[in-house]
Design goal:
- By secondary structure, the chain is mainly beta.
- The chain has three helices and 14 strands.
- The strands form four sheets. An eight-stranded antiparallel sheet has the order 1-4-7-12-11-10-2-3. The chain has a two-stranded antiparallel ribbon with strand order 5-6.
- The longest helix is centred in the last third of the chain and has 9 residues.
- It is flat and about 65 Å long.
């Protein structure tokens, strides 16, 4: 299991796949204190008669999983108005469950995709794409009347391919992948944005579509190891 933490001031973001080929972004209100990425191997053990040690056979790897906890606080705050004699005004608290409902919905099947959406967690140098396996929400503070204003949400994302490094090379939804499905592909030393466009779209000139989806201005300066979002063609 790997444990990561970051002091970066950039906001952690969840990119959520949409059937239209576009992606919705969910900006985390607070960056997580830490998160973990784990992967395990699968083994079978066969007992041997008269022997102390069993026969251990490696059967393959399991999918990597990312676990993180997000916090939300929409309780009453104060805002100072401009002016020498201005007094602080009390803002109205908001319902924290609006954030939670969005995250809970990531586990459900999208009617147009016919499956849950691919969700990519991005923060600093870490980009992890997969399917949300579980969401557990806990409300810890309430306004008068019972409206929740502080919540903790624990999430688990499971990569579609086993990948001990913690960065999904390709998010595969089914054996029949085609340009009508959004993907995340890791840029390697032996590949380029043009190679990816040729492989995924059959046309290297479509690299601009990938560059636009990833806010890339200079295709020649993309660092190796960058996880590129390859949008679907509709």
């Amino acid at each position: 299991m790997g444990l990561f933490s970051s002091s970066s001031g950039e906001k952690a973001v969840l990119y959520i796949e949409k059937a239209s080929g576009q992606e919705a972004s969910f900006s985390c209100q607070f960056n997580p204190d830490d998160f973990s990425i784990s992967t395990r191997g699968k083994f079978t053990r066969t007992e041997r008669k008269g022997e102390d040690e069993p026969i251990v056979q490696f059967m393959g790897g399991s999918a990597s999983a990312l676990q993180l906890k997000l916090y939300f606080d929409t309780s009453t705050s104060y805002e100072i108005k401009s002016g020498i004699f201005a007094k602080p005004t009390k803002e109205k608290a908001k319902d924290a469950s609006s954030y939670v409902r969005t995250l809970l919905g990531l586990v459900r099947i999208d009617g147009k995709l016919h499956r849950p959406p691919v969700v990519t967690f991005c923060w600093g140098s870490i980009q992890f794409g997969g399917i949300v396996e579980s969401v557990d929400a806990r409300f810890t503070q309430f306004e008068k009347g019972g409206m929740p204003v502080v919540a903790e949400v624990s999430m688990t994302l499971v990569a579609m391919d086993p990948n001990p490094s913690g960065q999904s090379e390709t998010v595969k939804i089914s054996p029949k992948e085609s340009p009508d499905r959004s993907k995340c592909i890791l840029l390697t030393e032996d590949s380029s944005i043009w190679d990816i466009a040729e492989k995924e779209y059959g046309d290297s000139s479509q690299w601009r579509r990938i560059a636009q989806a990833n806010n890339i201005l200079d295709p020649l300066s993309i660092p190796t190891g960058t996880l590129l979002r390859v949008p679907a063609i509709r």
